Amino acid sequence: MISILIAASIGLLVSIMVTPYLIRVFAKQGFGQEIREEGPEGHKSKRGTPTMGGVAIILAMLVGYFAAHGIRWVTGSGPGPSVSGLLVLFLATGLGLVGFLDDFIKIRRQRNLGLNKTSKLIGQFVVAVAFAVLAIQFPDEQGLTPASQHLSDVRDIALIIFPIPVFIVFCYLLISAWSNAVNFTDGLDGLAGGASAMVLGTYVVISFWQARLSCTAEPQVGCYDVRDPLDLAVVAAAAAGACIGFLWWNAAPAKIFMGDTGSLALGGLIAGLSMTTKTELLAIVIGGLFVVEMVSVVMQIAVFRTTGRRLFRMAPFHHHFELAGWAETTVIIRFWLLAGICCGLGLGLFYSEQLTVLGG
Q1: What's the number of domains the chain is made of?
Q2: What is the model's pLDDT at position 111?
Q3: 29 vs 248, which has greater pLDDT?
Q4: Cis before residue 253, ω within 30 degrees of 0?
Q5: Which residue range is the domain that position 10 belongs to?
Q6: Helix, strand, or coil here: 314?
Q7: Which residues contact 189 (CB under 8 A, 6 or more apart)?
């Protein structure tokens, strides 16, 4: 528990202190955000706001995680970094690098489009496949690997197991979906950062609960076959703290944007945590806001291509309400409330499954 608090605290402090430095450096270098011409009129004033702030989130997350383990090593109070934790950090950092390249190209070419679709998908594919292959290696004494070839809701679904090639494709689709879902949501000041902090905080609770009832520690009715759950809680806590620290500067009116650097990394974190905690289907509920934002884009494209008409005034969904006359801060706060409701519902489903198993 102490490591979780240390990781979250250091992640928050590093993020809140590093972000203003990045604002100054990026502003001096002219690393400003380009704005879609067809976007809401009020967004035009944001052109030139420093972007790539996701660098602060990734850095703070890594510092928070490794500092917590450094303190544990000095005090001799626990094991070092786990394979599961390092793999999730690898996934988030790798996707963050893809996002960084995308942001950098946008800035250099002064346009709203960075990497082309093929290059972006290839980058996500390489990182996702590497994660998928490594995640089913490194069994512990009980034979548990960081991820499972089973589909899972709160636990592995015994009847659904993927052959290795299918599992790799599944991982790619899941990681690509989550990274793009968070990317779509990152269109208003602080919206994606605040929602991500809630989702990551939810995963702190879930993974900590799994650690308390781990089959590895003490086999019992209702225990969880998850490798390294306590370390996954440390990862989620460091990332949640980093998001909150960044939100101090990213909340409306934003002084810096996270860019694809941050949104792809956060999407990778959610995907990685869902697979390593065996909650892929439950994550759809926990990250429900991101799911709705992505579905709104898919629906908009599908309806427009089939009927020639737009389902929403603009997609992703949050822009629809802006164009309907809602103030930006109103949209942000109400969407944060929706994100909180989704996280609470996800936690409720997680706990109710435990009660069902125990016969409560």
Answers
A1: 1
A2: 56
A3: 248
A4: yes
A5: 2-287
A6: coil
A7: 250, 251, 252, 253, 254, 328, 332
